[in-house]
Every structure is written in structure tokens, then in C-alpha cells.
């Protein structure tokens, strides 16, 4: 069976970034040298998501046949991003940490894929039910400082990302970090050594 791997890249430095290199190491480990896989890249700085608008939110809550042309047009990015996720068996997200949080482009992308009656729904008791089970997700986080080992951890990203994707049914999530990059040279890091449990 062919693996469909979606690699979402949030760093504007792309291939020169620590998070991208770590994400690529994950992609290569998942592929395992086999030709039976396909990798789709979504560079969030090459094709940035729009911030949610009142028009788009209105369109989210309408049935498809009830949307006018303008509302339908507002959903094009969202439709494409969700199509990427639906096609993928494995999702890799590579992201730097900015000011102890995720980049704005990644938050914008998340807002486009967390969508009522498409990636989540409510049951009869108004409980949110994720509609994207059976996906595996791997998150590669790079940070200039070391955040994850302090007594009072300042890593807010991992918990947030795990929680937000659980909302749409993705619960099989592994998180990998390369930290303290301000004091490192990218060429001195053995990225595959960070993902030895894959």
C-alpha cells in the first residue's frame, strides 16, 4: 500500500531551517527507502492561508448548495488544505517556535482545516467528534532556546498542537524537538538520531 505523506512546512527559511531538516528526517524514516510512497509539500509561506473572515465563517455554517459564489470562493484554500489531509496517511508538521508559540501562518492553516461538518461535527449531546481518524501525525519543533526541560516549562506548543488536532480525530501524534539552535550549527546536528523510535 502506498503511503501518502503530507509535509506541512511553517518556517520561512524552508530547507535552511532546523524544523524542516528534522521534518525531512521523519519523512525519510517513514518512507524507509521504499518507492511506494508519495510526499506532498505544503509550504505555508509560499501559499499563505488567509485569516478567517466573517464571510468565510458564514460559509462554514451553510450547506454547500446554499452558498453563493463569493462564499464558495472564500473556501478554496480551506478545501485544498483539507483535501491534502484527507489524502494523507501520515502528516508531518515542521515548525519553529516563535515567542513561545506557533508561527501565524501555521495558526492560519489550522483555522482553515478545523471546520464544522467537514473535519469535526457535534453529536446529539453537543459533544465534538473528530472526523479524521486513522491518521498518524509527527510534529517537528525547533527552538533557539531550550524550553522543554525546565521545571516551569515554557513549551506551550506541543500541548496546544496535540489538543487542537485531537479535535478533528487525530490522536496518534509524536512530537520531536531540536532545541538550543542559537548555539548550534545546522550541519552539526544528526537529525535522524532525534527520531530513533520511528
Please report the first level of CATH classification, the CATH class: Alpha Beta
The domain tally reads 1
Strand fraction band? 15-25%
CATH superfamily: Flavodoxin domain
Q: What's the shape?
A: globular
Structural class: alpha/beta
What is the β-strand count? 7
Oligomer: single chain
Q: H/E series, N to C?
A: EHEHHHEHEEEHE
The CATH level-2 architecture is identified as: 3-Layer(aba) Sandwich
Give a short summary of the structure:
The protein is α/β, with parallel strands linked by helices.
Walkthrough of the structure:
The chain is α/β, with parallel strands linked by helices and 198 residues long. It has one domain (3-195): Rossmann fold, CATH 3.40.50.360. It is built from six helices and seven strands. It has helices at residues 18-31, 54-60, 69-74, 76-87, 104-113, 157-166, and strands at residues 3-9, 37-43, 90-96, 120-122, 128-130, 136-142, 172-178. The strands form two sheets. Strands 2-1-3-6-7 form a five-stranded parallel β-sheet, with helices on both faces. It has a two-stranded antiparallel sheet with strand order 4-5. The two termini are 19 Å apart. The model has no long low-confidence stretch (mean pLDDT 91).
Name a few traits of the molecule.
7 strands, two-stranded antiparallel sheet, alpha/beta, 198 residues, single chain, 6 helices
